[in-house]
Amino acid sequence: MLAHMLPDGRRLRLHDGPIDLIIGADGTSDEICKAYGAATRRFTTILDELCSELPNLRESQGPEPTGSVACRMWQAVLPYREERFITPMAAVAGAVAEEILGCMTETARLDRAYVNNGGDIALHLAGNAALKIGLIDRCDRPSLFATTVISAQHPCRGVATSGRGGRSFSLGIADAVTVLAVGAAEADAAATIVANDVDLPGHPGILRRPACDLQPDSDLRTLPVTVSVKSLEIGEVEEALDRGLRSATSLAARGLILAAALHLQGQTRCVGATNAKPQVASG
After folding, report:
1. For the chain, does the N or the C end have fewer beta carbons within 10 angstroms?
2. Which homologous superfamily does the CATH classification assign to the domain defined by 2-274?
3. For residue 152, what pLDDT is reported?
4. What is the pTM of this model?
């Protein structure tokens, strides 16, 4: 396990196997020190806990797990299990971020804090605090195209991004889908769902392979995951985004997400009020 302060002297990095966290906190120096200590202590046990329940977490209809992070993952995908294939692994990054943030806020009084787990972010905002979040248009070559500001008065406490080219496989063709939700685990699961739905089933320009051929222990098993997507016609991009838009709109109507931004080959669709502002490059 790796734990060290970043060069700016303000943020903490925790790394263990596939988990890589960037953590920031605002408050008095004593409270920040206590929060970072709590985060580090909890982080030392998380990976072993998850590995102990991994077979169950890779099942779409497995029983409720026992660990706190695993239970959060299981609860986050529960609304979708009856309608499609999804496993608790779809929410693992967001659930880990929430767990670490919870330990920090239980231990210390912080004005603002975040835990960023590879782009899936758990937020703590107190009083009049706010945090600017960058939105990316591609998971494989992240570049900011817009920013959104989340205030303490806004119910969002979780942001997650999913899509083709990200850390996990996708069944769809979205370059990136960013979701705002009440929690990071919920945002993580929903981003997976919407990104999978940005798709053009049967299109000859989309190469897919069984997930198990690419990663033998993948929880997606023989499901065909997207490997590459050729340049699409404008109408095809719009059709794929419209499919994802219907999915995101449905999730928003059910109260499962607060907002979403969907991106594919230079086009964007939004659901809900993200208050996103275009990112202006300097230089």
Report:
1. C
2. ApbE-like domains (3.10.520.10)
3. 96
4. 0.94
